[in-house]
Amino acid sequence: MNLRKPSFDDIFMNLAEELALKSHCVRAQVGAVLSKDTRIISIGYNGPPAGTHNCDEEWPGVGCDRDSKGSCSLALHAEQNAILYAVKNGADLQQATLYTTLSPCLPCARLIFSAGIVQVFYRNSYAEYKGLAEDEGIDFLNRFGVETIRF
């Protein structure tokens, strides 16, 4: 019997999808996994910082207030949460890979590049989600040598 074994890419993207279900955001659920050498470094999902509010509980159906650009005023993005937790715990992100269910926005792309992450797998397009003409985060990462792959 020759069963197909899932690749680590499949496993990590599936985990990112599962993590997205943990999000307390009422507008979008995004998950992220950081890995290096087939090992998980950190995980994250979008939502308010720990110890603040859970939007789906505090403001069910409508979520938190929007900032001047129409984004959540409280939420950290899944990539931010994964990177912050890794750094807080002393993980080395040089040469790491990020798996995320939504391609990074431009501010997250800057953080990803600055952290030394060299490869990003993403499931869905941030530009398509937001109705934008281009995926600025993906464009930024590609311009500066971070490999991006739509999964």
TrEMBL record:
Protein name, per record: dCMP deaminase
Domain of life: Bacteria
A GO term, aspect molecular function: zinc ion binding
GO BP, sorted A to Z: pyrimidine nucleotide metabolic process
Catalytic site positions: E79 (proton donor)
Family: Belongs to the cytidine and deoxycytidylate deaminase family.
Annotated ranges, domain CMP/dCMP-type deaminase: 7-144
